[in-house]
């Protein structure tokens, strides 16, 4: 079989993509003295000291808890409110939903109103609260996810809903019994991308979560790096702990991520 | 009777939309309205905003940092709509020609995007570090003369941040462009080849026109995003050294969080919205006048 030369440039770019992550993971297992001698290679003595130290000094227990609360609630709210809205706009002849869709589309291309949200949070005492991050995240993600779910729901045959209506199923029951199971792939895509976005979000979180006890891992890592900026082993271990849940999510759902993006690209 | 039930069903639709709409109002609509009013005020977030007319705009036009930041945003856009998109285009093109490993390559390219920006920034910060990063290693193997000055020298810092940002974000573009390319009509390409068209001619005249809608949308979204460039800059340099990497977002971010100047910050944020509007109008022009079916 002839070797396909196209694998060469593709492999080069793959190395460009993977090498920095490889460095992060390798350096997390090296002692400080080893990093300065051998910054780019495999560790000679695998050590887990950095992890336990970083876990304590970075307050990772608190940070993980905060991130879990914020991420879970954001995903839950996004799936519920966007799912219901997409359902209402796709299947019920809601008056004005065409205009509303147009409005949502326009709002999507506008940048996030960071300053108003930040100062509204000050006024409403939402600084240093989980809700201060969750509410704007859900609201900001609303338009895009409604479009995504709606595009998927348009593919569900109307006859099914008519049949359910004839059988006396209520609007809400139809949503739970018919739409939710059929649109499950779309909901999964929404859920994983919301999880990723929420876990990695720093723009709002960094401003709103100011107290150390409220910070998410992504934001806490900023603090961590400014405190222990010269200890690369510690930083690397902290970095690994910050990204590992998302790496695991990605590795277990690679296909979903790629297909989700492909669908999104084709739909728009 | 039937008519009444019909109407009832109608409004039930809005009941389903309202919960999401409430979130949307708080996060998008109200901030947008405030974003148009606040630039004309002086406000520290505590008492009532004080109306001061155009003072903030006058200050913004005299503020040198605003000019630098806007220029950086433009540079950011020019870089992002060229280098990563051309790279993504060719990677996607190559991927259409390989049989094995398409998904594997795509996931490798996209995997960088799942790394939290604070960590991604730290990795690159370390790579650019003159004492421990790549430069150190180059010294060791005798390549010390190609020293990458990285983040400490103003003229290099923006490019350095951009490379890190490209590393993190190029994978999504590859996936989108490949998705568009794999829907292309293969027979056109075949016909062109039989007619003796070269590889680049096929790319330019057969593949490019077919994926133009996707390419335009991707370029458009990239350009829009460029004017909101924030995360990588904030994490890696915080806008420094000497505001060399400052963008509109990082500038109004620090003005509002550290300086508590909602009014002046909002005036600068308006520049970003203004840039977005120009791009949207341009997009509409392409759609209508040029008949680009995007």
UniProtKB/TrEMBL annotation, chain A:
Classification via PANTHER family = ABC TRANSPORTER PERMEASE PROTEIN MG189-RELATED (PTHR43744:SF12), ABC TRANSPORTER PERMEASE PROTEIN MG189-RELATED-RELATED (PTHR43744)
For this UniProt record, give its keywords in alphabetical order, as a comma-separated list.
Cell membrane, Membrane, Transmembrane, Transmembrane helix, Transport
**According to its UniProt record, which protein family does this protein belong to?**
Belongs to the binding-protein-dependent transport system permease family.
Q: What is the protein named?
A: Raffinose/stachyose/melibiose transport system permease protein
Using the record for this protein, list the coiled-coil segments as residue ranges, or answer none: none
Cite a GO CC annotation: plasma membrane
Q: Does the keyword Lipid biosynthesis apply?
A: no
What Pfam family is a match, any one? BPD_transp_1
User: How does this protein lie in the membrane?
Assistant: Multi-pass membrane protein
The record's section on PROSITE patterns has: ABC_TM1 (PS50928)
Domain of life of the native organism: Bacteria
Organism in which the protein naturally occurs:
Cohnella lupini
Q: Does the keyword Membrane apply?
A: yes
Cellular localisation: Cell membrane
Q: Where is the ABC transmembrane type-1 domain?
A: 64-253
The UniProt transmembrane annotation reads 7-29, 63-87, 99-122, 134-153, 174-196, 232-252
Please name the InterPro entries in this protein's record. Answer: MetI-like (IPR000515), MetI-like_sf (IPR035906)
Q: Which GO terms describe its biological process?
A: transmembrane transport
UniProtKB/TrEMBL annotation, chain B:
SUPFAM superfamilies attached to this UniProt entry: MetI-like
Q: Which residues form the ABC transmembrane type-1 domain?
A: 70-283
One Gene Ontology biological process: transmembrane transport
Q: What Gene Ontology terms describe where this protein resides (cellular component)?
A: plasma membrane
Q: Where are the transmembrane segments?
A: 12-38, 77-96, 108-128, 148-167, 215-236, 262-286
Name where it mostly resides.
membrane
Keywords from UniProt, A to Z, are: Cell membrane, Membrane, Transmembrane, Transmembrane helix, Transport
Task: Please name the InterPro entries in this protein's record.
Answer: MetI-like, MetI-like_sf, UgpAE/MalFG_permease
Task: Classify the protein's membrane topology as the record does.
Answer: Multi-pass membrane protein
- Cellular compartments annotated: Cell membrane
Report the superkingdom from the record: Bacteria
Q: Name the PANTHER family on file.
A: BLL4140 PROTEIN (PTHR43227:SF11)
UniProt similarity note: Belongs to the binding-protein-dependent transport system permease family.
Stated name of the protein? Carbohydrate ABC transporter membrane protein 1 (CUT1 family)
